[in-house]
Amino acid sequence: MISSDVGGVLGRIRARYLLFGTFAFQVHGFSFGSPDTDLWLDPSLGNEGWKDAVREIAGPHEILFRDHPEADPPCQSARIHCTPHMDIISRPSGHTDADFEPLYWVSTQSRYGRLPPLKVLLRSKLHAGRPKDYRHVMRIGRQILNIW
C-alpha cells in the first residue's frame, strides 16, 4: 500500500500530524491509483518549528517550500520529493489552526499516523474547490453508495 520511500519518510516524523488527501482515503479503504501523501503538521510548532520539522522529515530528499499568501489566513506547504511525493501542509482547505487539536483527538490511529474521520476529509476536498478534488469526492460517494 505504501512505498518504502514514503514509509521511511513517515518513520522520521516526531511532531504530531494528521493524514489528509487521497492517501488518507486509501487508508480508509477507498481505492485510488498511486496517491500522494498529504500531512497536516501540528500548527503549535509555529512557523520556524514547522520548517525545521519538514527538514527533519525530508531527510535526504529534496524539499520545495511554497507560501500561499492569497489564502485567508496565509498558509504554506512543502513538497518532499520521494516516491510518491509527500505534501506537508500548514493547514488543509476548510480548516483553521484551532481545528487541529479537536481533530487530532477524534482521529483514528493507523499504522501510518492519525487518520481524521471520512467526513472531515471529504469536507476538505470539497472546500479546495478544484475539479480533481470534486472528482475524488464523487468517486468516493459512488463507492459508499455502491453505484457504478
- Might you state the CATH topology name? Beta Polymerase, domain 2
Residue windows where pLDDT falls under 50 for at least 5 positions: none
Briefly note the structural class of the backbone.
Answer: alpha+beta
**What is the C-alpha radius of gyration, as a whole number of Å?**
15 Å
Strand content: 15-25%
Termini separation: 24 Å
Determine and state the CATH class: Alpha Beta
CATH architectural arrangement:
2-Layer Sandwich
Query: How many β-strand stretches?
Result: 7
| Biggest pleated-sheet summary | 5 strands, mixed
- Our count of domains comes out at 1
Task: Report on this structure.
This protein is an alpha+beta fold. The chain has a single domain, classed as Beta Polymerase, domain 2. Helices cover 41% and strands 21% of the residues. The protein is built from six helices and seven strands. It has helices spanning 4-11, 21-27, 46-58, 100-106, 118-128, 131-145, and strands at residues 17-20, 37-41, 63-68, 75-80, 86-89, 108-110, 113-115. The strands form two sheets. Strands 1-2-5-4-3 form a five-stranded mixed sheet, with helices on both faces. A hairpin with a 6-residue loop joins strand 3 and strand 4 (75-80). Helix 5 (118-128) runs antiparallel to helix 6. The longest helix is centred in the C-terminal third of the chain and has 15 residues, at 131-145. It is globular. The mean pLDDT is 83. It comes from Rubripirellula obstinata. This is LicD family protein.
